[in-house]
Write a structure and sequence with these properties.
Radius of gyration: 26 Å
Largest sheet: none
Helix content: 25-40%
Number of helices: 3
Distance between the termini: 62 Å
Strand content: under 5%
Number of strands: 0
Order of helices and strands: HHH
Structural class: mainly alpha
Length: 94
């Protein structure tokens, strides 16, 4: 088991950082944006890299914005019930 660094954030400090990252105003922001906003407000919690480590430990390192889901595309299927109803061509190279 690796030794804990003396400068490492405590469990409570890590929970505080995660709580800030979960706030409504930061929920869709990158850690760098959160860091800059907090610095403008005079608040320093941890480094940007530490924010990423905390998010990774909580399995939350991903695209934080809401993602658009596209509808499932059904491939059309043509059915001929008689001659000369469906025409097709081969576009592959000879």
């Amino acid at each position: 088991m690796p030794r804990r660094q003396s400068r490492a954030l405590t469990t409570d400090e890590r929970a505080d950082v995660l709580a800030v990252l979960h706030e409504d105003r930061f929920v869709d922001r990158a850690p760098a944006e959160v860091y800059a906003t907090l610095l403008d407000e005079g608040v320093y919690l941890c480094s940007i890299r530490s924010m990423y480590r905390i998010l990774a430990a909580a399995h939350e390192v991903r695209e934080r914005r809401d993602q658009l889901t596209h509808p499932i595309y059904a491939k059309p299927e043509l059915l001929a019930t008689g001659p000369n109803q469906v025409w097709s061509w081969d576009i592959s190279a000879p």
